[in-house]
Amino acid sequence: MVAAWIAQLARGILALALGITITLTLEHTPVFGLVTFGVFALLGGVVLVGASLFGAYAGRMRAGFLAQGVATVAAGVVALAVPGGGVTFLGYLVGAWAVVAGLLEGVSGILARRLSPLARDWIITGALTLALGLVALLLPPDIVQTFAGERGASGTLTSSVILIGVIGVWAILVGVLQAISAVTVRTARTAPAARDQVVAS
User: Fold this and answer.
1) Element (H, E) at 158
2) CA distance 25 to 7
3) Interval 73-113: pLDDT, tens
4) Taking the model in full, what pTM does it have?
5) Which of 38, 46, 122, 188 has the most CB atoms within 10 Å of its CB?
């Protein structure tokens, strides 16, 4: 049996790793976006599928998270198989995945409101992921805008830079949320056990 908080923590760590990688990398090209998203999605999908099959989720939640895991693995495989797909492909792939994954996670959270302390966080994660999907699908793929800073710094803002930046922000937000909720649930479960030991002694 795998505890739901363990899967939640693993997903949070993967999301934070994605967000930090994007933040520390200057070249936000479509190839970079597809490869980093592909690795994240493949590993995250495996976590969801494994957690679903080994008892982390119960009842109707299990089917939702299993479907989400399969869709996430598929998105990761496609991203890694076509790293040269370009910014339009990246936007459609991330957008389609995020809409599906966001809806599935949100529904799972709603179904689990009286069953799991992680339900609220699943709902929030679903909403954030759905928002990512809408941004990815609606962002024009041909944005090219040069800019110059006050101290002589200059650069070019493109659709790829914006999209990958949004993915990075989403990953940091979701990663922090999932990591905190996992630790909170773990702490809440161990506290009663510790109190029982003190009383028994």
Assistant:
1) strand 154-158
2) 27
3) 999 999 999 999 999 999 999 999 999 999 999 999 999 88
4) 0.88
5) 122
